Amino acid sequence: MKTLARRNWLMIRRWFAAAGLGAAALSVCLITKVGHDYASLSAPPRVGDLPLSVVVLDRNDRLLRAFTSQDDKWRLPVELPEIDPLYFRMLLAFEDKRFYEHGGFDALALARSALQSLRNGRIVSGGSTLTMQVARLLEEQPTKSLERKYEQLLRAVQLEAEFSKEDILRLYALRAPFGGNLEGVRAASLTWFGKEPGRLTPAEAALLVALPQSPEARRPDRFPEQARKARNRVLHRAAVAGVLGKEDAASAANEPVRTIRYAMPFLAPHESRQARADAPLLPVHRLTIDLELQRAIESLARRKSETMPSPVSLAILVADHQSGEILASVGAPNLLDTRRQGHVDMTRATRSPGSTLKPFIYGLAFEEGVGLPESFIEDRATNIGGYQPTNFDQSYQGTVTLREALQLSLNTPAVKLLEAVGPARLIARLKRAGANPVMEKGIAPGLAISLGGLGMTLRDLTQAYAAMARGGEPVALSVCRKDCEEGTAPVSSARVLSEKASWMVGDILSGLPQPQSAETHHVAYKTGTAYGYRDAWAVGYDGHHVVAIWSGRPDGTPVPGATGASVAVPILFEAFQILGPDRVPLPDGPAEAMSVAGQQVPEPLRFARLPQNRGTVRTGDTLQISYPPDGAELDLGFARDSSLEQSAQPLVVKFKGGAGPFSFLVNGRPLHTGQRERQLVWQPDTPGFADVTVLDANGNSAGITVLLR
């Protein structure tokens, strides 16, 4: 018996030894396989590699518009500080209490899950950590099989080795599913709550925690009761974990679940589309648009368009002419309105500007000494080389001042003044402003451009009027804040108009009726109506903003009876009211302009000096300035050091021909009248451009512009 017992004991020992060796070998094989499988894992995707939605932000980084990602998901970029911390506290309390302690998997949670499953005969809890869930979301593979669960566990360990805990949380915040094509906390918050996730209520945070577990079955818009129950389980767990007080959790559990699905922000759609087209590889576009102002201006455009026949569209542009920033831009009342061709951005469409260019013609006339605001001009039927302009109402006003002619937008005086200053010069000045006037190919600019015989965009006009508002100094209007590209026309460093001429024009235009600010004279504006009622315009400015309105049909079909005054002006002043009830006053004019204002017009300028007044002189030769030549740069010795007192030699202007006595205008200001000597000696105060005009007794004139240094 003892021998048999001893033999059995030896057999048992051998069996245990063999089993131990087998287990050790199995462990080695298992460890080897795990190590091999881990080493075979591909590199995990970085946050920057995820296909995200392209977003367009306003001047304060608020969302204007988003585009779906390359895989057609609403997956908006978001940083952890942009999400309410309450969400993360509730997420970890519900999904992964030991998130900051484990290295990818939680052994205790996995063991608990296995025991619960064995006890209940079904899966009660998955035991997955938040990191394992991120691994599943990145792989986009189901994990119902043990093989997939094993791969997920390996990937989770890899993620923990490669990334920080904050990176893993951000990956979850970007990729967690929330129903339909919604992914990420930001997209979910905007869709289900209509707001950014920066400030969430306990009920909202709990719903965002609950949805990713079963995003389709718990969609609030389809299954609100299931969503409510899942949300309340999260609230209960948060209360048990001490994340929420019991009273706060109970109060949040009583809140109804919103069943509305909010639309993704869709502001400034045309500018957003253009920004993306200009820089298609840029993930974030930052614009100068002001979200609240944009929303209000778009609302104004929609409200006004509802009173118009359906083919008629509307465009509005609002800019800060001091900084050049475009604050609001509406290319059409509704991008998706096919009846009004809403997809067409009418701020960039080339149209006839009607009479909106007349202020620049008058400005050139003032600048070149053709006349002053109180100079007279004849508004009568005229024929200039076969061109016979007529006024809009087919009537004539007779003798009027230039001020009255511009305020009444009379056509004949504008054409006469353009003949005096030259169409090519008007085009050149508009280009200085950064505008891009469009002429028929091969056709030189003619007198018809004074009445809208060329093409301009709403942006062109806004840019030109911005220069006028700045005293003739051009400014580049831009909708790009930073890190974006924009195809804007270059702006010259030379003035569009002199400061004096710009102020005179603004003084005239601010004298027009002010529909919503009677007798304030704070808004200078001009209307325009294209031939055949095809385009209705109004452009205006105060001391800070410039606003431009266009209305018409995108296809160019006439809109009978629609004029700038009847259609565009009311919208213009409502837009100014949206900017604030108090207007920023227009600045005072320069000293040389103020000295002329209210003074009696010099006799030579009692009537505007038009080409027909410059016929053959009755005595002597044609009046000509012999020195200096037009456009010359003269070094008069102005001190170059601003700390030194400036002193310079006088400017000597010599001329010949004409009939004395002679009068002179320097920068539009009368000087030395009744002189018979054939030279002018003038002492300038400062360097810069100087316009000098000589007039003789017969009303003939000659002028030059020189740069004094």
UniProtKB/TrEMBL annotation:
<feature type="domain" description="Penicillin-binding protein transpeptidase">
    <location>
        <begin position="315"/>
        <end position="542"/>
    </location>
</feature>
<keyword id="KW-0511">Multifunctional enzyme</keyword>
<dbReference type="Pfam" id="PF00905">
    <property type="entry name" value="Transpeptidase"/>
</dbReference>
<dbReference type="InterPro" id="IPR036950">
    <property type="entry name" value="PBP_transglycosylase"/>
</dbReference>
<keyword id="KW-0121">Carboxypeptidase</keyword>
<dbReference type="Pfam" id="PF06832">
    <property type="entry name" value="BiPBP_C"/>
</dbReference>
<dbReference type="Pfam" id="PF00912">
    <property type="entry name" value="Transgly"/>
</dbReference>
<dbReference type="InterPro" id="IPR023346">
    <property type="entry name" value="Lysozyme-like_dom_sf"/>
</dbReference>
<dbReference type="InterPro" id="IPR009647">
    <property type="entry name" value="PBP_C"/>
</dbReference>
<comment type="pathway">
    <text>Cell wall biogenesis; peptidoglycan biosynthesis.</text>
</comment>
<dbReference type="InterPro" id="IPR011815">
    <property type="entry name" value="PBP_1c"/>
</dbReference>
<dbReference type="InterPro" id="IPR050396">
    <property type="entry name" value="Glycosyltr_51/Transpeptidase"/>
</dbReference>
<feature type="domain" description="Penicillin-binding C-terminal">
    <location>
        <begin position="617"/>
        <end position="705"/>
    </location>
</feature>
<protein>
    <recommendedName>
        <fullName>peptidoglycan glycosyltransferase</fullName>
        <ecNumber>2.4.99.28</ecNumber>
    </recommendedName>
</protein>
<keyword id="KW-0645">Protease</keyword>
<comment type="similarity">
    <text>In the N-terminal section; belongs to the glycosyltransferase 51 family.</text>
</comment>
<dbReference type="InterPro" id="IPR012338">
    <property type="entry name" value="Beta-lactam/transpept-like"/>
</dbReference>
<keyword id="KW-0808">Transferase</keyword>
<comment type="similarity">
    <text>In the C-terminal section; belongs to the transpeptidase family.</text>
</comment>
<feature type="domain" description="Glycosyl transferase family 51">
    <location>
        <begin position="66"/>
        <end position="238"/>
    </location>
</feature>
<keyword id="KW-0378">Hydrolase</keyword>
<keyword id="KW-0328">Glycosyltransferase</keyword>
<dbReference type="InterPro" id="IPR001460">
    <property type="entry name" value="PCN-bd_Tpept"/>
</dbReference>
<dbReference type="InterPro" id="IPR001264">
    <property type="entry name" value="Glyco_trans_51"/>
</dbReference>
